[in-house]
Amino acid sequence: MALTTALTTTISPLKLSFPTPTPKPITSLHFSTPTPFLIHRTTTRLRPITAVSAEVEKLGNEISSLTLEQAKTLVDYLQDKLGVTAASFAPAAAVAAPAAAEVAVVEEKTEFDVVIEEVPSSARIAAIKAVRALTSLGLKEAKELIEGLPKKFKEAVSKDEADDAKKQLETAGAKVSIV
Asked: 3, 22 in Cβ contact below 8 A?
């Protein structure tokens, strides 16, 4: 601390001295160069203006200087004069929507849920054993599953796995459905 001054305080016969730093004058400010991420966020990129005729440029400047109310009036006027609507400019979107609906209908279900509907009281022990064999549930959890029916036993499983689980549970005496 080369540049310090002494602050002197007198307390009774003692004299205390505390060093205080002298502030350095700011000579210049150095900013780190922004990262490409920040450049992207702060830089506005405009498309280059293509060569257009003076008449089109004049018309574009006049349209861009309109207020919103004037622009709406202009749109309404042009729609009436030309006999078009805003919806007529997007025929591809109207055609694409029914095609997407057809695709959804054609797709085959690949994930199934196995639901235990009911278990007769005479088959509860066998059903609990089947549930424990098909899952990693403990005895208490398997018993709670069997007592609170109907419940989803397995969710989002393949068709083969769902059929196998249904077969084992029906063998144990449970009434099972695949959803």
From this structure: yes
Whole-model pTM? 0.41
Residue 109's Cα: distance from chain center in Å? 25
CATH code for the part of the protein at 120-178: 3.30.1390.10
Q: Using one digit for the tens of pLDDT, what is the confidence trace for 46-100?
A: 556 667 788 888 888 888 888 888 888 988 888 888 888 766 655 555 555 555 5
Question: Across the beta sheet with 112-118, what order do the strands follow?
Answer: 151-157, 112-118, 175-178
Q: What is the DSSP letter of 83?
A: T
Taking the CB of residue 149, how many other CB atoms lie within 10 A of it?
Answer: 15
User: Which sequence spans correspond to the domains of the chain?
Assistant: 120-178
